[in-house]
Write a structure and sequence with these properties.
With 447 residues, the chain is an alpha+beta fold. It folds into 2 domains: 2-30; 42-434, Beta-lactamase. 28% of the residues lie in helices and 18% in strands. It has a 7-stranded mixed beta sheet, sandwiched between helices. The protein has a 4-stranded antiparallel beta sheet with strand order 1-8-9-4. Strands 7-15-16 form a 3-stranded mixed beta sheet, with no helix packed on it. The longest helix has 20 residues, at 2-21. 46% of the residues are buried.
Length: 447
């Protein structure tokens, strides 16, 4: 009996080894090696540079060097591993704070915030004439995705996450499609398995693979790789200060368009400012045109939230203050069509959304790869990533809020389908922007 058990155990180990070493399961042993996705994993992937072709610093608001997150939020910022928190007010940096040795030039993975970038690139491709409109059939570019029982799959259905395709979104399962997309090396082959299993344009169903199909469509329509097109149409026009990195499935391969745009808090904030300005950019003086000087208002603070303390300490970073753009001195630049962006940031309420409690309601939380919410009366459009990456656009306050970090809450606001850690970041920002007296108690939504 003992010998039989040992033989069975050896066979089991050989079987597991065969599964892991099978070429088609390359992603499995890579996932086991690196485990759950992390914000600083871009070095383990091949990457394509998104060139910042006209870098210019953002202006700073007076007093930014003294402004910090309110003390009552420090425990929650620490609990969820916040590495960057930045607030723009009227186009100027109002607050900027960092933790864990992160700083103004530190790269962090956008994760699914990249989906909103893809949406804006679709708008650019329409403006450039590569795509007719959002109702153009997907099969005009990708013949493999035609129709389901006579209902044509449109670009609009991809944008609104209502494509009706087969895709396992779980990012915690070793064998999910999303895990294979993240750690695998052949996104095109994986996309071929996204067969239509339902009528498109009926149900909102968040699926990363749908954004990846959009990216393949963009590449086919424009004849450009995604990173180069993003550099030309968005990253350079908004004067990003640093090159970004878009992770690929393999060397010279395809961008992981549903995630994996690696940049810093300042340049992520520019994306939110672009949305706030209805797709226009107001150019600043370039880095070569401004003087660099140390100042008491120096930004780039390191919060230093240690495990045993929420105390913070500032780090000296040279201030590059371009100053506000004088009215009429610089013409605005059209980056993304305003009409497209307005539609993209409007919820697709004609769709049905299934809530966690089983109810079906109109989709009030999603547009064209952008999330939407009503927060204490503020209409907010936002970019969202799986580990708590956020860019919040708050038009009523002329503000943009960026939060980057390692974790987000497990619990959700059911009605608006958002992770409850968002309450922390928005309350902290509102406290700074409107001198809020809203009572806040430290929370642990992961419990």
């Amino acid at each position: 009996m003992r010998k039989l058990f040992l033989e069975f155990f050896v066979l089991l180990l050989l079987g597991v080894a065969a599964v892991l070493l099978w070429p088609g399961n390359y992603y499995v042993h890579r996932a086991l090696l690196h485990t759950y996705p992390k914000i600083d994993q871009y070095p383990i992937f091949e990457n394509r540079v998104v060139k910042a072709g006209d870098p210019a610093p953002l202006p700073y608001a007076p007093g930014v060097g003294e402004r910090r997150i309110p003390a009552r939020f420090e425990a929650d910022f620490s609990r969820y591993g916040t590495v960057a928190f930045l607030v723009l007010k009227e186009g100027e940096i109002w607050l900027e704070q960092y933790w864990e040795n992160y700083g103004p030039q530190s790269h962090s993975n956008s994760f699914s915030m990249a989906k909103s970038i893809i949406s804006m690139l679709v708008g650019c491709a329409i403006e450039d004439g590569f795509i007719r409109d959002v109702d153009q059939p997907v099969s005009d570019f990708l013949p493999g995705w035609g129709a389901y029982e006579g209902d044509t799959l449109r670009i609009r259905d991809l944008l609104t996450m209502s494509a009706g395709v087969k895709w396992d979104e779980s990012s915690t399962s070793l064998f999910s499609t999303t895990t294979e997309a993240y750690y695998g090396k052949d996104l095109w082959s994986l996309a071929q398995r996204e067969v239509l299993i339902g009528k498109p344009g009926v149900y909102f169903n968040y699926q990363s693979g749908v954004t990846q199909i959009l990216a393949f469509l963009l590449k086919e329509a424009t004849g450009r790789n995604i990173a180069d097109y993003a550099s030309e149409k968005i990253w350079t026009p908004i004067q990003a200060e640093e090159d970004a990195l878009w992770s690929l499935d393999h060397e010279d391969g395809m961008e992981k368009a549903y995630c994996c745009f690696n940049s810093n808090a300042r340049d992520f904030a520019r994306l939110g400012q672009l949305v706030l300005q209805d797709g226009y950019w107001y150019p600043q003086a370039s880095a070569d045109e401004v003087e660099t000087d140390a100042s008491s208002d120096s930004p780039g603070q390191v919060g230093g939230l240690a495990e045993s303390s929420a105390a913070t300490e500032a780090v000296d970073v040279a201030k590059v203050d371009a100053g506000p753009v004088a009215a009429g001195t610089r013409k605005r630049v059209k980056v993304v069509d305003s009409a497209y962006l307005a539609e993209a940031t409007t919820p697709a309420t004609y769709l049905k959304a299934r809530l966690d409690d089983g109810r079906e309601v109109p989709c009030t939380m999603y547009g064209y790869q952008f999330w939407k919410m009503d927060y204490r009366g503020y209409d907010i459009t936002y970019f969202r990533g799986i580990l708590g990456q956020y860019i919040f656009v708050i038009p009523a306050l002329d503000a943009v809020v960026v939060r980057l970090g390692h974790e987000r809450a497990d619990a959700y606001n059911v009605e608006q389908d958002y992770p409850l850690d968002i309450d922390i970041w928005l309350e902290a920002a509102l406290d700074l922007l409107v001198d809020s007296t809203y009572a806040w108690e430290s929370k642990n939504f992961c419990e």
